[in-house]
Amino acid sequence: MKKIIKKIIPHFVFERLKRLLNLIKLNKNYFNEMRRYSKYSFELTKNKTQRHLESNLIFFYHKIEKGLSLPNPRVGFGEKKVYHLLELVKVYYNRFGWDKTAQVSLNTLFAYYKFNKDHNLDLKDLYIELEELKKISTNNTTVGGVTNINLKDIESARINFKDFANSRYSLRAFLPGEIPLSKIRESVEIAQKTPSVCNRQSCKVYVFDKYRKDAILKHQNGNSGFGKDADKVLIITANLKDFRGPKERNQAYIDGGLFSMSIIYALHSLNVGTCALNLSLDYRDEEKLKEDAKIPKSEVALMMVALGNFPESFYVTDSPRRNTKDVLKVIDGSSS
Ligand SMILES: Cc1cc2nc3c(=O)[nH]c(=O)nc-3n(C[C@H](O)[C@H](O)[C@H](O)COP(=O)(O)O)c2cc1C
User: Fold this and answer.
1) Is 169 touching ligand 1 by the criterion CB < 6 Å?
2) Ligand 1 close to Cβ of residue 303 (< 6 A)
3) Which protein residue's CA is at the shortest distance from atom 23 of ligand 1?
């Protein structure tokens, strides 16, 4: 049909029509993304689930742990937020019981109390409330607050990242053989260290084994000729329930992109070959994929990763990079 229209109408009309059609498609996609974001994100949803309230606890306790990590925290800083968090913990407990997130919130509040007490501000009322909550706490997590780090401990963990990064290639020539789930679990554990906005950790990884992955790969348009040889396929998603108002509308893609890169590097460190696969889908196709893959509607499907064993020798694309001078711009303020 497209070919026939192209033949019978002038080129410039065809180009205009194409542009118009793309503009309509773009509007439809943005409109549906907006609808999805307003349905699930924290400040826009009508239906706050446990995940929303859990992320909200993280959002507020992170403000306190962040304050405690500054070079010179002001004694008594953020008291309003502290009492707000206290209320949020109570509401959360009443609705969902006590869990790790409630415990970390409480530990952070205790750390805040201790910091102030150590600086001669004894917030007695706060302490009484915290002790009350401690009585109902059933989780043994001890983290929450701040930790002192010695530079030498970080230095001893340094690797030659330049060599490591340069030794990663997208693999499109998988050798048959199983990648144990334990390696994927380890890569996820490593990727969980990826920074995320207010530490809200929105990402999730779905693994499809060799029996399921071909059906999943049918939703993706860039794996022909090699997807069939992958041992497993991952889908990486981000949960919109972890994001807040209109300003965070793109945060899922940012946090998800960082997380995905970590997974790819983590798998590379475990000697697993990977190829990232785009999920640049029309919103209806994304819905179909999620339905097939049993991914909840509140999650954005960000990308797939095909993975498998390395052969002894293989071809990779050269994929030359741009000149660094075109990527790095130094804004020199000394002359202004
Ligand atoms: C988000 C994303 C989506 C990608 N999608 C595909 C894809 O669908 N098919 C494919 O063969 N490669 C895909 N790639 C791999 C890129 O082509 C590759 O990363 C790039 O050419 C650089 O090469 P390198 O990974 O070997 O360094 C994708 C990469 C990213 C980051």
Assistant:
1) yes
2) yes
3) 319
- Any atom of ligand 1 within 6 Å of the Cβ of 317: yes
Show me where the domains of the chain are located. 2-40, 50-136, 157-308
From the list 113, 125, 108, 106, the residue with the least C-alpha distance to 76 is 113
- The mean pLDDT value of the chain amounts to 96
- Note the pLDDT tens digit of each residue in 56-105: 999 999 999 999 999 999 999 999 999 999 999 999 999 999 999 999 99
| Chain CA centroid to CA 260, Å | 8
Cα–Cα dist 227/214, whole Å? 8
Q: Using alpha carbons only, what angle is made at residue 213 by residues 297 and 303, rounded to the nearest 5 degrees?
A: 50
Q: Give the ligand 1 atom nearest the CA of 223.
A: 9
- The token duo for 90 is 């109570």
Total-model pTM = 0.94
Dist. CA 41–CA 44, nearest whole Å = 6
pLDDT tens figures, 192-240: 999 999 999 999 999 999 999 999 999 999 999 999 999 999 999 999 9
Task: Please indicate whether residue 323, judged by its CB atom, sits closer than 6 Å to ligand 1.
Answer: no
Which of 170, 224, 253 most suits a substitution to test ligand 1, by most atoms within 8 Å of the C-beta?
Answer: 170
What architecture is domain 157-308?
3-Layer(aba) Sandwich (3.40)
Which atom in ligand 1 lies closest to the alpha carbon of residue 220?
8
User: DSSP per residue over 259-293, as a string?
Assistant: HHHHHHHHHHHTT-EEEEEE----HHHHHHHHHHH
CB 170 less than 6 A from any atom of ligand 1 = yes
281, 296, 318: which is closest to 36 by C-alpha?
296
Task: For ligand 1, atom 3, name the residue with the nearest CA.
Answer: 278
